[in-house]
Design a protein that fits this description.
With 199 residues, this protein is α+β, with helices and mostly antiparallel strands. Helices cover 33% and strands 39% of the residues. The longest helix is centred in the first third of the chain and has 17 residues, at 48-64.
Length: 199
Amino acid sequence: MTVTFTTYPSTADLLLNAEPRQVADELARAVDTRRVVEELTRQVQAPPGELVRKAAEASGELLQGIDLGSVLLNGWSKYRALRAAARRTLDHPGTGQVVPLLEHEIVSHHEPWVEVQVNGQPVARLALGVDLKLKLALVQASIRAGRLMRLTAGTCTATISCSMQGIELASRDLVEVHLPLNQDLGEGIPLLQAARSPH
């Protein structure tokens, strides 16, 4: 059974705009304004408007694929205090630990790309850069059997920056991210390889 960690907003695109349909519109305006695809238009010999729209739609879909819950869990799985607590609970079955996380930051960089095809043949690649910074404060994590079982209290804010071909398209600061707090996480989320099969 896979346990998911669902935040709200849940994906990177929703940090830019709470309305998913408007993300591609915003990206299209930014791509067009910053002339990111000017050279590409010459290569592809396609109508600029159509190319901009399709590049923006594909970019929006790539942002939808960046799950904030997964970013947080990946960051916490590398967090020394959580890993140490997970190891102690594996070494001493039946015990649990509460780890205060206080203020900390999880930084994540993503480099998805969009392949541009003409008549089914790839002609170019548009590289995206997505930088996320998640700032958390006053979170307490309950650990048992090497797994994250519960989060208590805490706040989280996010900063996102999205670029294409190295040119920034959009960014937003201090977006509030709601965490699944004060609720059990089912079988828990493994923090160590040794905790991946439920006990």
